[in-house]
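Methods — Computational structure assignment.
A single polypeptide chain was analysed. Its primary sequence is given first, followed by the predicted tertiary structure written as structure tokens.
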Amino acid sequence: MNASLATTITAVAACGATGAALWGLQYARRQIDTAVKARQVDRVLALYKDFTSGEVGAARDRFSDLMFRTGERAFGARKCWRPDLESLIPSHSGVENGLSSSRFLGAYPSDMVDGVGKRPIQDLRQVLWCFDRINEARKGHSSLDEQLLISLMGHQVIWWNLLCARLVTIEASHVYSLVQLASWMEEKGWREDPRNKYRKPPENDFPSHEDDVPPPKFSTSPKVHRGLWKQLRPSV
């Protein structure tokens, strides 16, 4: 074998080794990217599960059920009440009657069996704390699959932001994360996502004139007689 041929073979072998090495690096990078993507998806699914199941899911269901009951009494079928903070504070015998009557959402009615031992304001806190966790995870841009988060939770985030609109005050740190998250969802165009595009707009669940309507004239105290509550409930 002459020197020229040996040199050629060596060069080809070197090129082959380099090509194999590059392919190996690309393959490893694809594997890493796939693993990262899988972790991002898993984190979103874990946050979604936290929001829709367990203690938070139960709190979410109870609180929204009560707000729909109250809204339907005030505005008609399929309308939801937006509470203010005063109405959610549990009433007690130590306050005067006028103040006590303004706290008409301080307890669940007796026919909401799953509300026994629970308070609406506690349930709302559970939901808002969950939004705190979601928003903090969202700020770490590389930790979540943003599109999946928007697809799974866009509608719910905007709906709860509307529900809590009357809780927003200068000192509204309790809803700060929710407001931030909703603003981000809007910037990301959550309404155009296929999962959300054909859903009923969340605004449709809320009247635009509620501040002009007095709160419903009934108590949600657990002491309310079951029969009386059934008379007051709207037919759905």
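Note: The longest helix spans residues 3-52.
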